[in-house]
Amino acid sequence: MTDELTLLAEAGAAAVVAAMATDLWQGAREAVLDLFRRDAPAGTAQVAAQLDEAAALVRTTTAPDDVRRALSGIWARELRELLCREPACRAPLARLTAEVDGALGYGRATVVLEQNNTARDSATVFAVQRGDIRTTHQASDATRRNNRRTGR
User: Fold this and answer.
1) What is the C-alpha separation between 35 and 19, in angstroms, rounded?
2) CB–CB of 115/129 below 8 Å?
3) Which has more confidence, 101 or 149?
4) Are 73 and 13 in contact (CB under 8 A)?
5) Is 77 a residue whose pLDDT tops 70?
6) Could you tell me the CA-to-CA distances from 138 to 4, 135, 146, 149 in Å, in that order?
7) Mean pLDDT throughout 55-76?
8) Rounded Cα–Cα distance for residues 30 and 107 (Å)
9) Is the pLDDT score of 136 beyond 90?
10) What's the pLDDT at 142?
């Protein structure tokens, strides 16, 4: 579950900072404030100030993509902590992420994963992307016979 929270928080943060300095910003800002209101209604003024400061940085910088990358890490941490405290925020954050991604054309369909694996000289390659792999090794008949002979 921790990996799910981290991925959702990272995706949410990427969507939030991508919306900064765009026409989507006010809606995204309000959606993020709604999430934080669920957790601590009195603390939304501080979150609003942080969001406004971050958006101003993106708007005024000469390198908005660099600023967005830096802000993404900060907001991923904030959103992950929020999701840990308030699990009911998961679905609204996922909706916000999908809406912003869709509006900006960053949908998941654009993600391309490439992996090249080569096994040579009777080697075996075990590879996976975005998941787990579990393997077991079973000795060959020749190895088992040799082990019995040598007492292993």
Assistant:
1) 16
2) yes
3) 101
4) yes
5) yes
6) 33, 10, 14, 18
7) 94
8) 21
9) no
10) 67
Tokens read off for 115: 């992996």
Encoding tokens for residue 83? 């999701």
Q: Give Cα separations from 152 to 83, 138, 144 (angstroms).
A: 52, 15, 9
Distance CA 119, CA 125 (A): 6
Distance CA 105, CA 116 (A): 28
DSSP assigned state of 130: S
Q: What pLDDT, on a 0 to 100 scale, did the predictor assign at position 5?
A: 86
Other Cβ atoms within 10 Å of 94 Cβ, number: 14
pLDDT band at 115 (very low <50, low <70, confident <90, very high): confident
**Residue whose entry in the numeric block shows the structure tokens 């009195």:** 42
pTM over 0.70: no
Comparing CA positions, the residue from 7, 14, 53, 51 lying closest to residue 33 is: 51
CA distance 60 to 29: 18
Both tokens of 108, joined, read 């998941």
- What pLDDT score does 16 carry? 95
Polymer length of the chain: 152
Burial of 57 (0-12, 13-18, 19+ CB in 10 A): middle
